[in-house]
Amino acid sequence: MNNIYKQAMINKAKNLAIGGNKVDNIKIHSLIDNPYQPRLEIRENELRELAESIKEQGLLQPIIVTPKNDNYIIIAGHRRVAAHKLLGKQEIKTIVLNNLTDKDLMAFSITENLQRKNLNIIETAIALKEYKIKLNKSFSDIAKELGKTKTYIIHLINVLKLPEEIIEDIKINRSTTDVKALNMLNTLKDKLSVVLTTDEVKETQIRLYEILLKKGREHLKQEIDKLLNSQKTNNYNIKKTNKGISLEIYQKLSKKELEELENFINNLIKSKNETNI
Question: CA-CA distances (angstroms) from residue 92 to 19, 26, 225?
Answer without folding.
Answer: 17, 6, 56
